[in-house]
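Retro notes - structure team

What went well: the batch runner handled both jobs without manual restarts.
What didn't: labels got mixed up in the shared folder, which is why I'm recording both outputs here explicitly, each with its sequence directly above its tokens.

Job 1
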Amino acid sequence: MTGRRKILISNDDGIHAKGLAALVEIAKEFGDVLVVAPHMPRSGMSMAITVDSPIRLNKFEKSAHFESYSCTGTPVDCVKIAFDKLLDKDPDLILSGINHGSNSSVSVHYSGTMGAIIEGCIHDVPSIGFSLLDYHPDADFSQVKEFARKIILETLKNGLPRGTCLNVNVPKGNPKGIAICRQGNGRWVEEFDQRTDPHNENYYWVTGYYQNMDNGSKDTDNHVLTEGFVSVVPVKIDITNHEQLEILKSWNLW
């Protein structure tokens, strides 16, 4: 194992997800792979961590240059426990996905896939999140692999600035190429379907929809994905609005 790269992989669709298996297959081409993934789907977890119950870690599979664990925590828990209990040194790369469904635009803030990647970024390790715009459990990831290889190779070759990770989204079908772009503007409009359980108590099921607010901008992930291109958005962990700092200093707060 001496001299081989170490790659840590997690996701939010769970240890059994087809997208995770596809990403592992790609990562094995670049080095030794350690997988720590939730034992069940944990979508929408964002940067959540487990503080109110024990976290259990179970070895799932082991072979030459590969080891995997299931974790009862969140995607961020998976990355944290890998650093604390399983790695003897920082990995060369952290990957998450391949997510079943989009994590473009504002979804980056809700995504467990990207939560794992942002945690990796906090640890100063080059980190990339991959998502396919297909929610089907048996989605075809063959087209993702070609582009993931290119992005992983270039990231290993060039590195990423400290505090920056990549959010990669792949359209369904045959992508035309890769587009470097900014995060699109939009929001999820929450609609809650009210239902009644057998005890005559009301409960609610989220049925919201995404509202694109780009207003015709052509340099966003929303746009390039619609045009059939893979979107690559550099994401920073520093969410300070630096332009607003000086404006706030002019307020009468003292």
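Job 2
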Amino acid sequence: MPIIHVDRVVKEFRSPKREPGLLGSMRTLFTREETVTRAVDDVSFSLDEGELLGYIGPNGAGKSTTIKMLTGILVPSSGTVEVAGIVPWEQRARNAMHIGVVFGQRSQLWWDLPLSESFKLVAKLYRVEPARYRRNLDAFRELLGLDEFMNSPVRTLSLGQRMRGDLAAAMLYEPRILYLDEPTIGLDVLAKERIRTFIEQINRERKTTVILTTHDLGDVERLCRRVLLIDHGKILFDGTVAQLKADYAPQRMLAAQIAPDGIAALDMTAAVELPHAEFVRWDEGKLWLRFDPARVAAPALISEVMARFSVSDLQLVEPELELIIRQIYAERTT
């Protein structure tokens, strides 16, 4: 049975219809007309325990609204949601014991207290027994590098330090599910690497189910086995990163570095006439070819290139996920 099940969920927000001008503002006070915004539109998906899902889309796509319904903060307009067998908004206290939540722009830590005291309060709130608290805190201190600022007030921490503290606090009571909303936003390379390693480890070793919403597609490529793509409240894609690339950018690039002794003898006509590849460009001793893996396997194309040219190095280039996502959204707005 899935640990998270979302079935045909719709979430609408209603507000009074506003008319322009001063007279229109007066009419708004008395009108019954409403403007309806559908933030989530007939969304369905399920997650098995231990899955790590990348939930991606542009601003306003419906990602955060979905997470808020899963946590029980919002109630859907229609459809059903179950998290660990619980309807989140009906049993908020029970649901809270199963989930950890980290929002990149908000903190669950106590602003004026040292980080260590915030951890103690989290342990009390979630009734974590002392031995389990010490075991988890010791593991997180090492993995996230918390010791250097454990006794510093939260308000004095950098964004990267606070995010590491928030992640540790969210996992102290060993929730089965972790919701991460932009956990690496605004962080430097080293801080991102620590957080990505932490997410990988808790998912792999503790079988924690993770839903990750992010605009950093480096997070997705590094961490996520499955991607759910949403736009204007509707699911556009649900599958692996490899499937997404195959569906929306099926072609690959092969870059062949021509050996210095072979450049003079390079026959560009032979490059153009390769039957299973398209000549793209010649750039600083490197021959770039585009091909479709569905028509020709990469090893076969490499053998063909090696037979025709004096090659010193070869590189297979995958399409960038960010460019694919950008292309999908561009096509939807034109």
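One thing worth noting from job 2: The chain is about 40% helix and 25% strand.
We'll revisit the folder naming next retro.
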